Amino acid sequence: MSTDWVPGDVPPADEVTADFWDATREHRLTVQTCACGHRQHPPRALCTSCGATEALSQAASPGRGVVDAYTVVHRAPRPDLAVPYVVARVRLDEGVLLLSRLEGRHDPEAWSIGDAVGVAWADLPDGRALPFFLPTDPTEESR
Ligand SMILES: [Zn+2]
Known about the structure:
mainly beta
């Protein structure tokens, strides 16, 4: 699968996001989880539910979810990006939202809210990887 859409300017990892990014090097999706049970994404310095700063860790995610919202982009923000492509908000089974990209369908207009998706990975030149999502419905034809 072509991943020539990967941007060259992905922000570097910092103190808060380092554990998330390290896991992407092994194509493992993780979701920041607080000792209070709250989950959030992207990683933050404190829990948005209880305010804790020391009780946060990255928990493994199976990377399954549904399309919560999406848009088909027809005008690329960069001249080297092939259009159309699909930008989506994916709701993981854990309940958090991820802004990502949908691939794996010939017709970008064939996506629908609620479609089941699973994570896949596009490698970055620095060894990290970006999550994107593919349809997981086994009955799906080449939509
Ligand atoms: Zn908390």
